[in-house]
């Protein structure tokens, strides 16, 4: 579990960039931090992985303050994926890159080799490829795999899909989704609300170093005040649903609650067939009332 207790943080020791933030992230959660530029989202990630210490308050990992943990102890629990994979890739081949997390802490050996082989198989990597010759999406996947291979309890992702095309983004996020389904806690910063809507179960919206909202993804992404304060646009289906739901004729219908394409398609199909049934009833009623032929 990750806990922030009244955490404030600053880079220069004076100007606070995080102000009195309290939050709890239970094991197995999938949380997206979203909000304005400079709100303090990446700073929050650095506090979780211990790269930054609070100026006041406490960040606790499984009940232990990060200030009482060695960097290696935090790294054992928390894997961190940078926005730019090239900040963490440093080995000449894919295989060595995946092994590096083990060898760097003196844990190389047959077990580590087996984990790496499984990861190469699962991601379909070319083990001997040179990482820097891979395309951007594959480098991001490699950076992610080199974290997952160590099986951390928590994975922190700082804008994991920035600069990726749709297919690359889907590959990375599906790998993250599988990791979460296997029990890992996922905490990510993400500006793309489509990705947030597709994967995160909870959204923490931030502005100017404070949390302005925290709750189930679509509850947060449907609150006009949150959207305004954190400069967020909901995913397109949710936005259409909110627009249609504002029409009194559709308020309270499934259309007004749809957050996914499937939900919206089903809601619209149900409305269309209800309209068709109503029209048929009307025609039948008109037919029944029509005057009989003859004088
Ligand atoms: N290394 C640093 N040194 C000094 N100030 C920093 C540093 N990193 C971030 N800041 C400042 O801290 C504040 C919060 O930055 P942070 O990167 O946490 O915001 P963010 O919400 O992640 O923003 P963005 O969405 O633009 O990445 C900003 O005012 C930023 O300029």
UniProtKB/TrEMBL annotation:
Keyword terms, alphabetized: ATP-binding, Nucleotide-binding, Transport
Xref: CDD domains: ABC_cobalt_CbiO_domain1
Any GO molecular function: ATP binding
Domain ABC transporter: 2-233
InterPro entries per UniProt: AAA+_ATPase (IPR003593), ABC_transporter-like_ATP-bd (IPR003439), ABC_transpr_CbiO/EcfA_su (IPR015856), ECF_ABC_transporter_ATP-bd (IPR050095), P-loop_NTPase (IPR027417)
Recorded family membership: Belongs to the ABC transporter superfamily.
Protein name as catalogued: Energy-coupling factor ABC transporter ATP-binding protein
Organism annotation: Adlercreutzia faecimuris
């Amino acid at each position: 579990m990750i806990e922030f207790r009244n955490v404030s943080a600053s880079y220069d020791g004076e100007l606070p960039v995080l102000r009195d933030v309290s939050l709890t992230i239970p094991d197995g959660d999938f949380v997206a931090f979203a909000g304005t530029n400079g709100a303090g989202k990446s700073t929050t990630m650095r506090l979780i992985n211990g790269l930054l210490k609070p100026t006041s308050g406490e960040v606790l990992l499984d009940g232990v303050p990060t200030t009482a943990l060695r960097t290696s102890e935090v790294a054992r629990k928390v894997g961190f994926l940078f926005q730019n994979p090239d900040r963490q890739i440093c080995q000449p081949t894919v295989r060595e890159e995946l092994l590096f997390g083990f060898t760097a802490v003196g844990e190389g050996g047959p077990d580590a080799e087996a984990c790496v082989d499984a990861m190469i198989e699962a991601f379909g990597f070319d083990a001997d490829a040179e990482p820097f010759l891979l395309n951007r999406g594959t480098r991001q996947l490699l950076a992610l795999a080199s974290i997952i291979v160590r099986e951390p309890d928590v994975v922190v992702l700082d804008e994991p899909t920035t600069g990726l095309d749709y297919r690359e983004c889907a590959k990375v996020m599906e790998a993250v989704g599988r990791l979460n389904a296997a029990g890992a806690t996922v905490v990510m910063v993400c500006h793309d609300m489509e990705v947030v809507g597709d994967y995160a179960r909870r959204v923490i919206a931030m502005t100017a170093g404070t949390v302005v909202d925290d709750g189930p993804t679509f509850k947060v992404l449907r609150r006009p005040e949150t959207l305004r304060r954190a400069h967020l646009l909901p995913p397109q289906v949710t936005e259409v649903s909110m627009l249609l739901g504002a029409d009194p004729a559709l308020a309270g219908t499934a259309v007004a609650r749809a957050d996914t394409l499937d939900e919206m398609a089903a809601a619209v199909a149900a409305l269309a067939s209800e309209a068709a049934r109503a029209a048929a009833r009307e025609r039948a009623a008109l037919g029944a009332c029509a005057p009989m032929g003859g004088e």
